[in-house]
Specification:
Elements lengths: L1 H25 L5 H17 L5 E9 L7 H4 L2 H5 L10 H35 L10 E4 L6 E3 L2 E5 L8 H13 L2 H14 L5 H24 L2 H10 L12 E2 L5 H9 L14 H12 L1 E9 L19 H70 L2 E3 L2 E3 L1 H7 L6 E7 L1 H8 L7 E6 L3 E3 L5 E3 L12 E6 L5 E7 L3 H90 L5 E5 L2 E3 L11 E7 L1 H8 L6 E7 L2 H30 L5 E4 L2 E3 L1 H5 L6 E7 L1 H8 L7 E6 L2
Parallel strand pairs: 1-6, 2-4, 7-10, 15-18, 19-22
Antiparallel strand pairs: 3-4, 3-5, 7-8, 9-10, 11-12, 13-14, 15-16, 17-18, 19-20, 21-22
């Protein structure tokens, strides 16, 4: 709904300019037909100009901005703290409510206008048609002539009206030139923009200008003095305000008489209409020009500075307004761009933070794996030393077993038991597992902590058959083998296998440790690279921020300068375009305009001099309009007193006559304000409201009203 309100404000602003420009420059000129075109064209422009926009694209060269840099300028906490609780009475809701309220009131106002127009059309259409012309109607309830669209309406007593031909010609001009259209348009604007008081003043000026047009047309073919007398005569019979009809006695009589006596304006003064051009141009470029920025990314070496030429002259106010508008738009858009980049930078910063957290998690996992591998190795060594060794059914500790000093060749079989199997066989001492060893039959058991190998051929050539088995946790043998090698070879093979197993475990631990170290190094290198890139881009952002701030400051200075020059030019235009003023005389003596107020109560009449008459009678040789006011004399005051006394006596006489008539049973005709009434209406009439009363009797009444007037006729005029 906001665009509707903006359109309404712009339209009413232009209508206000239309009225003020007329009051300042045009109202005293005699270009009445041109002024009508000015009003109609101005209203059309006021309605259409806010709908027309011009889009200008401005290319702005900028260096690429890095959104990552803002991750160091803003943190998550600062963004989360910008949480604003929304109120139900937001500006948007208020504007929407006002828009709906305005639309509702305006719709009712427009419907009311339509009702009034339809009612007026029906009223005129139902009036009696004159025998002279179908478009001429007779309104028995009206005291003044008026016109609307193609109809001219006259009062019932138009035949007795003085100078009825002038009145009829006046209204015919209104009809021929379609003046009702002007009145309907301005009345519709009043109902559409009912809140704008300037439209009431504008309507009065439009109506007055239409009367100027008719006055000018009538005086081309009739005597000016006679026409002015007719205007004064019908001044007292004005209709109540009906804004969409033209009446003969409407508008300001004084201004109409002054305009009739004004000398014709010179053609050079038509140039005043051109003064409206810079005003409309300034409005268009200030409010109807939309500037869009097109950003071009360039490198630091190739970047060209954005400059703006200020070639404003006093005669080119529209370019000043356009420049100020463009600079303001550029400042605003740069600010919005920086704000958007900041928000995007925060998102990128969060992503970088997530990457760092992931790398940290991987490093912790690798470290955990290394610790687990080390613990496993340590636990394996510990278990190997803590578990019991069972040799031919005798239980030994690891140190006792080592102390036996028996060579490997004396072992016939080895079983590694898990904790469950060892506990089942040996009780609590086997809770961590056990190692069972069976010696060869020929091995001599000394019982003193050592095995003695009594094999005669022991040393390299002896051949002995034995078996080795490795048992898993559930007691199942997973490795078992027999050999017919010599005892020395068997011992070497067993030692080699044990060494290979230890080397494999060492390689596994080293590989795990190297893997975690390598992954950690890769992540750290990646983070370091990102950090360096962010630092670099942060510097670019700071530099770009400084450039934006400098541009904003410079644009504000240039805009303020342009606005100042614009104000000076407008002031100069006003000073050079002041319209002609009046020269005032009171009883033949020239006075200042400020002194007139002290004479208002004493003024008797006003005269507008032509230049020739002013030069001849007053000796005034200037080019201004001369107004001479004549003050009341003692004789005038005495005459006014006599008139007042006569009027008082006349009213007393009328009151007495009316009372006498009421008391008698009068059977004649009664006309009150030219409308036939009954005797009952006569009896209820208040004598204080009677202005004139005329009684016709005998032949005078019969000649005018026929047989109905035989018993007499009473003609009464009352206060309206």
């Amino acid at each position: 709904m906001t665009p509707i309100l903006i359109y309404i404000l712009k339209t009413n602003g232009l209508l206000l300019v239309l009225y003020l420009f007329y009051k300042l420059f045009l109202q005293k000129e005699t270009f009445v037909h041109a002024n009508r075109i000015y009003f109609l064209g101005g209203i059309a422009l006021s309605l259409l100009l806010p709908l027309i926009t011009y889009t200008s694209i401005v290319q702005v060269e900028v260096e690429p901005l890095d959104t990552m840099a803002y991750a160091y300028l803003l943190d998550d906490t600062s963004l989360e703290s910008i949480a604003v609780e929304e109120s139900i009475w937001t500006a948007e809701n208020l504007i929407t409510s006002l828009s709906y309220l305005y639309i509702s009131l305006t719709a009712m106002s427009i419907l009311w206008l339509g009702y009034k127009v339809i009612k007026l059309v029906r009223h005129i259409h139902n009036l009696p048609v004159s025998q002279v012309n179908d478009s001429l109607r007779i309104d028995e309830q009206s005291s003044d002539a008026y016109s609307f669209m193609n109809w001219v309406v006259l009062p019932k007593d138009y035949e007795t009206m003085d100078q009825v031909d002038v009145v009829l010609a006046h209204e015919q001009v209104h009809v021929q030139q379609r003046h009702s259209i002007d009145l309907i348009i301005i009345e519709a604007l009043k109902h559409l923009f009912w809140f704008n008081p300037a439209l009431y003043f504008l309507q009065r000026e439009i109506n007055l200008n239409l009367e100027y047009i008719v006055d000018e047309e009538i005086t081309r073919h009739a005597d000016t003095y006679t026409y002015q007398r007719a205007l004064v005569l019908y001044e007292t019979n004005k209709l109540d305000c009906v804004p969409i009809v033209n009446t003969f006695g409407t508008s300001d009589l004084k201004k109409r008489i002054i305009m009739l006596n004004n000398p014709k304006s010179t053609n050079m003064k038509r140039l005043k209409y051109l003064l409206l051009t810079p005003v409309l141009g300034g409005f268009f470029f200030l409010f109807q020009t939309e500037v869009k920025a097109q950003y071009i990314e360039v490198s630091g070496k190739d970047k060209s500075k954005v400059t703006s030429q200020d070639n404003t002259t006093p005669e080119d106010i529209s370019k000043i307004s356009e420049e100020a508008r463009r600079l303001s738009e550029e400042v605003e858009r740069l600010g919005k761009e920086a704000e958007a980049l900041g928000v995007e930078a925060v998102n990128v910063g969060r992503e970088a933070k997530n990457i760092g957290e992931e790398a940290k998690s991987v490093g912790a996992e690798a470290k955990k794996i290394g610790k687990e591998a080390k613990a496993i190795s340590k636990e394996a060594n510990k278990i190997a030393k803590d578990i019991p060794y069972v040799v031919n059914g005798q239980v030994y500790t690891y140190s006792e077993y080592v102390a036996l000093g028996n060579p490997v060749s004396s072992i016939a079989n080895v079983d590694i038991l898990d904790a469950k199997t060892a506990t089942a066989r040996y009780g609590n001492i086997g809770k961590d597992g056990a190692v069972e060893l069976k010696l060869r039959p020929e091995t001599e058991w000394t019982g003193k902590g050592s095995f003695m190998d009594n094999a005669v051929n022991y040393g390299g050539n002896a051949k002995t058959s034995f078996s080795v088995a490795v048992v898993d946790k559930d007691g199942t043998r997973v490795v078992e083998g027999t050999s017919s090698k010599s005892s020395a070879d068997a011992e070497k093979d067993l030692m080699r296998k044990l060494k290979e197993k230890e080397e494999a475990q060492a390689k596994l631990r080293l590989a795990l440790r190297e893997r975690s170290d390598a992954e950690r190094q890769v992540i750290l290198a990646k983070q370091e690279k990102q950090r360096a890139e962010i630092d670099k881009r942060s510097a670019n952002v700071e530099r770009r921020k400084a450039e934006i701030e400098n541009k904003r400051t410079e644009a504000e200075k240039r805009r303020a300068s342009a606005e100042g020059r614009k104000a000076e030019i407008e002031k100069d235009i006003r000073e050079r375009s002041i319209s002609d003023k009046f020269v005032y005389y009171v009883d033949g003596k020239q006075v200042a305009e400020s002194e007139l107020e002290s004479f208002y109560r004493k003024m008797k009449s006003v005269r507008v001099y032509s230049r020739e008459a002013a030069n001849k009678e007053l000796g005034y040789t200037g080019n201004k309009t001369v107004l001479e006011y004549t003050l009341k004399t003692d004789e005038d005051y005495e005459k006014a007193a006599r008139v007042e006394e006569i009027t008082k006596r006349y009213k007393e006489k009328v009151s007495a006559s009316l009372t006498s008539v009421k008391s008698d049973s009068f059977k004649g005709l009664v006309f009150i304000n030219n409308v036939e009434k009954s005797n009952d209406d006569l009896k209820t009439l208040d004598a204080a409201n009677v202005v004139t009363m005329e009684v016709l009797k005998g032949s005078a009444a019969a000649d005018k009203y026929g047989d109905k007037g035989v018993n007499g006729v009473i003609l009464i005029k009352t206060k309206q």
